[in-house]
Amino acid sequence: MSKTLLIVHHTPSPHCQAMFEAVVSGASDPEIEGVEVVRRAALSVSPTDMLAADGYLLGSPANLGYLSGALKHAFDVCYYPILDSTRGRPFGLYLHGNEGTEGAERAVDSITTGLGWVKAADYVVVSGKPGKAELEACWELGATVAAQLMD
């Protein structure tokens, strides 16, 4: 039986798009077997999508030092419907920010602690244009979280 990794992302810029593509590439690596990668824009994700997933990757710009409104909206819509059903599931986070990301990181920590999700890897945080090392870190994040779902 395959597992599902849900990537919930808000990708409004070329920098976020590059990070998203690297995460998807890592999560979809051919060596990772039995894991279906599902992508949902943060403004369209539903509680059903979240409940159907076995793990999560979250991607967002840090706007004015906080989560994007889109990712916050995803949690506003899904939080209570998934609260008791997704405990213990692994997640990862990648952020792009030019003005500091501490507020966004704190918000994700708070939300995921409330949900009982388990941080599967260090967050990937990038300022400015992501270079080769940052994109490799995004690839590793995707691969790490997906690999944790393999049977």
TrEMBL record:
Residues 49-126 form the NADPH-dependent FMN reductase-like domain. GO terms for molecular function: oxidoreductase activity. InterPro entries: Flavoprotein-like_sf, FMN_Rdtase-like_dom. This is Flavodoxin. It comes from Mycolicibacter kumamotonensis.
